[in-house]
Write a structure and sequence with these properties.
The complex is a heterodimer of chains A (320) and B (266). Chain A has 320 residues and is mainly α. Chain A contains 14 helices and no strands. With 266 residues, chain B is an alpha/beta fold. Chain B is built from nine helices and ten strands. In chain B, strands 6-7-8-3-9-10 form a six-stranded mixed beta sheet, sandwiched between helices. In chain B, strands 2-1-4-5 form a four-stranded antiparallel beta sheet, with helices on one face. Classes of the chains: A mainly alpha (320), B alpha/beta (266). Bound molecules: adenosine-5'-triphosphate and magnesium ion. Residues 14, 23, 41, 43-49, 215 of chain B line the site of adenosine-5'-triphosphate (ATP). Adenosine-5'-triphosphate is lined by residues 14, 23, 41, 43-49, 215 of chain B.
Amino acid sequence: MKSPDILTKESEPMTAQSAHNIILDSPGASASLVAAARSNEAQVIAFAPPRAPFAERMWAVAQSWFAVIVPPIIVLCALLLVWELASGGPKASLPPPSKIWADAKDLIVDPFFVNGPQDIGLGLRVMTSLQRVVMGFGLAAIAGILLGALVGQSVWAMRGLDPIFQVLRTVPPLAWLPISLAAFRDANPSAIFVIFITAIWPIIINTAVGIRNIPQDYRNVAAVLRLNHLEFFWRIMIPSAAPYIFTGLRIGIGLSWLAIVAAEMLTGGVGIGFFIWDAWNSSRLSDIVVALVYIGIVGFVLDRMVAGIGHLATRGTQAT
Amino acid sequence: MTPFLKVDHVSKSFARGTATTEVLRDIDLTIARGSYVSIIGHSGCGKSTLLNLVAGLTPITTGAILLENQEVREPGPDRAVVFQNHSLLPWLSVYANVKLAVDKVFGNSKSRAERHDWTMHNLDLVQMTHAKDKLPAEISGGMKQRVGIARALAMEPKVLLLDEPFGALDALTRAHLQDSVMQIHARLGNTVIMITHDVDEAVLPSDRIVMMTNGPSATIGEILDVALPRPRKRLELSSDPTYLRARESVLKFLYERHRAPSLQAA
Ligand SMILES: Nc1ncnc2c1ncn2[C@@H]1O[C@H](COP(=O)(O)OP(=O)(O)OP(=O)(O)O)[C@@H](O)[C@H]1O
Ligand SMILES: [Mg+2]
C-alpha cells in the first residue's frame, strides 16, 4: 500500500516540473533576449539558464531510444526462450541457443580471429563476401544507371532493349552461375558476375522509370539553357531521377546479398556462403545459426546504408 | 528598318495519329525592341502554344518567326522563359538555380567572380538575396516566381517570355510582382511578351495588348495600343480615362465578341 504511493508521489512532481520547464523555456529565452537588447549587462542572463533544459532534453532522447530498443530485446528474449524449450529435448533435430553458445562461442565473441587459412572469424569471412558484393554491385550501379538513362531517354532504345531486360530479369541468380563459370573459368569473377547480373535489373528499370518521369518543365529549362548531353545527364537527369534510382539501388543491394551467399556455396573460397556449406557438410549446425545471424545483420546494415545515402542525396528532389 | 521580332503568318497544328488539330492559324505580329506586349485570350485558345513557338520549344507548322532577322528554330537563352509554374530545379538552391543559367550563358565571357556578382545582382533585382541558400521548397510561391524571373533576366535575353507568371499568386503578391517586373522593364529596357488571363494585368504594364480569338484555329482578333505615359502608377491609373477606356475595350473583346466557348454554348 505504501510503496505505490511513494512511487506516484516521486514521479508526479518530476513530470510536472519537466512540463513546467518546457513551458517556461521559450518565453524565458525571449524575455532575456529582449533584456539583452535593452542593456549590455543582460547578456549574462541570456547565456546562464540552459543547463536544466539540456539535461531534460538528454533524458527525452534517452527515453525515445529506450522505446526503440527495449521492445525488440524483450521479443528476442522470448523467442530464444521458446526456442530453448522447443529444442531442449534429447530428440530435437536443431540445437537450442544454449548449445549454440557452447559450440560456437569463439565465432560469436571474436569475429576477427585467424587460426589458419580456413579457420578465420566470421567477420573476416563477411568482409571477403562484402568485397565481392561491392565490386559486383558497384559495377551494376554504374552500368544500370547508364543503361537505365538510355532506355528512359530514347524511345528506340526502350523498344529494343526493354523486352530483353524484362525476360532476363526473371532468370534466377544461380542460373547464371554455370555460364559465368564457363566464361570466366575462375570462382571469384564468376561470383562477382552473378552479383552484377542479379543487381542490375532493378537499377535499370527504376532509373528508366525515373528518367521517363522527368517533368517536361525541367526539360524545357534545359532546352532554353542549351545544356549539352553531359550537362543534362548530371544537372537534370540524375538529380531528378534520384529517388527512383535509389529505390533501384536499394532493391539491388538486397538482391546482391541474397545472391552472394548462394553463389559462394557453389564457388567455394573463404566467403560466408561457403562457410555455411562447409559447416553443413561437417554437421556444425550451431555454426550455421551464427552465420545466419551475421548475414541478417549485414544485410540489414547494407539496406540501411543505401537508404540513408539516398535520403541524404534526394533531400531537395522530393518536394517540388 | 527591319522589325525586331516578327511572327510571320504562323500556323500550328498538332498531329495525333491521323487526326490533326489546328490550334493557331495565320498569326501575324511584329514587336518593336524594348516594348511590353501582353497576349490575352480565353483558356485553351493557344497562348502558351504561341509563346512556346517564339521560345523555340515547339516546332512551327507553317510560317516563320524572325528575331533580328534570324529565323527561330530551337530554344536558346536569347529568349528566356518564365514558366507558369516557376520551374525551378528543386535540388538546387535559389542561388544555384540562377547560377546554372549564368554559368551556361556567360561561361566563356565572364570570370568566375564576375559570374558570382552577376548572379547576386540579378537576385538583388528581385529582392531575393536574403534567401539565396534556401531550396525552392523552402520559399513561398511568390518568391519562387521571383527567382524564376531572376534566372530569366540573368541570361540577358533579347526577349523575355512570361507565361502567366503571376497566375498562381494571391492578389497582393501579384500586384507587387507586377510592379517589380514593370520597374525592371523600365530600368533594363528589355522586350517582354507576357501571357495573362487578367485584364488589369494586361493593361497596366503593356504598350500593346494582343487579343486572341477562341480556338480551335485561334488567331489575333485585335491589337490594342495603350498610350499611357510611363512610369505608370497603379493607384493613379485606376481613375485615368485612357486606362479605363483600354480596360473596357479588352473586356468587350473578351466577354462580348469572343466569349468563352463554354459560355457561348450555354
Ligand atoms: N502537345 C500538344 N498536343 C496536342 N494538342 C495540344 C498540345 N499542346 C496544346 N495543345 C492544344 O492546343 C490548345 C491550346 O493550348 P494552350 O496550352 O496553348 O492554351 P492556352 O491558351 O495557353 O490555355 P491556358 O490559358 O489555359 O493556359 C489546347 O486545345 C490544347 O489541347
Ligand atoms: Mg497556357
